[in-house]
From TrEMBL:
PANTHER family registered for this protein in UniProt: 3-HYDROXYACYL-COA DEHYDROGENASE FAMILY PROTEIN (PTHR48075), 3-HYDROXYBUTYRYL-COA DEHYDROGENASE (PTHR48075:SF5)
Domain 3-hydroxyacyl-CoA dehydrogenase C-terminal stretches: 188-283
Pfam families (alphabetical): 3HCDH, 3HCDH_N
Organism of derivation: Sandaracinus amylolyticus
Residues given in the record as CoA binding sites: 50, 57, 121
Keywords: NAD, Oxidoreductase
Name under which the protein is recorded: 3-hydroxybutyryl-CoA dehydrogenase
Keyword NAD: yes
Site entry (Important for catalytic activity), positions: 142
Amino acid sequence: MSEIAKVVVVGAGTMGHGIAQVCAQSGLRVTLTDVSEGAVAKGVSAIDKSLERMVQKGKLAAEARERARAAIATSTDPAGASADADLVIEAVPENMALKLDLFRAISARAPSHTIFGTNTSSLSVTEIAGATNDAARVIGLHFFNPVPVMELLEIVRGLGTSDATTDAARAFASRIGKRPIVVKDSPGFATSRLGVILGCEAIRMLETGVASAEDIDAAMELGYRHPMGPLRLTDLVGLDVRLAILEHLHRELGEQFRPPALLRQMVRAGRLGKKVGRGFYEYPADEKK
Ligand code: 3HC
């Protein structure tokens, strides 16, 4: 296929707005979409905050920020916006039914060369591909939070993904300054499968009183040089997101992924992590994003 110039990002939440931002900073035209004007506006405001932070730190020129902002259009109609897209990246909640509906609608409108990317953390890319009219053009493009900072792009090949689509995904990774790894479609891929088990065990340790949240995190930060301990990282990712991934991996891979009762309770209590100001830790209002 010809080079990717226009990207549609579906979902303006934690991951979607970050993905739109890095695409725009790399000179791509982007349409950021979500279900409501309010959700889109929230995503755009998070992009503004991140770009401002980069300008303040001297990592981005003011003109580059303006160029990036000018490259971002918004919409509440993902299928309509995809009518001239080279690449669509879905970043909606981890709900298979939602993703299938979305890809069905998008693939009915998108041109025959469009690549369909999904930012799913753990669900089956092969199953998602079944909702489109061409499984060869469907691929996992798994980003990491915070997207402007994290170097990795995990490219996930579904059963029907073509070599041409994989090559285009690799080229896209280079274009946006990410280092790609290519993995086979399997539950949790390479990253979530390993990352989630550490977070899950940390929650079990907290639950059974092995140590405080601060000390469990310090164990990994200071003893293993992780940039962030597993509980603080769960707060960053979102406890609801982690629970959804664990439920899926528990069904697919077995007992070691059974979600801890404490995680379920915290999600029921609305303690979803940094995005709401409260998870394993508390976050002041200005630190939420
Ligand atoms: N936008 C732009 N820049 C940002 C940013 C953002 N949203 N967030 C952080 N930064 C920049 C900061 O400005 C800072 O820049 P500097 O080096 O020039 O000063 C740099 O990143 C480091 O940030 P801080 O100084 O604020 O704080 P830290 O040094 O503690 O780093 C962190 C923060 C980058 C989040 C680091 O703690 C980290 O790497 N944590 C682990 C993150 C991780 O593991 N993410 C993966 C989660 S799993 C996932 O996303 C998968 C999904 O499917 C669930």
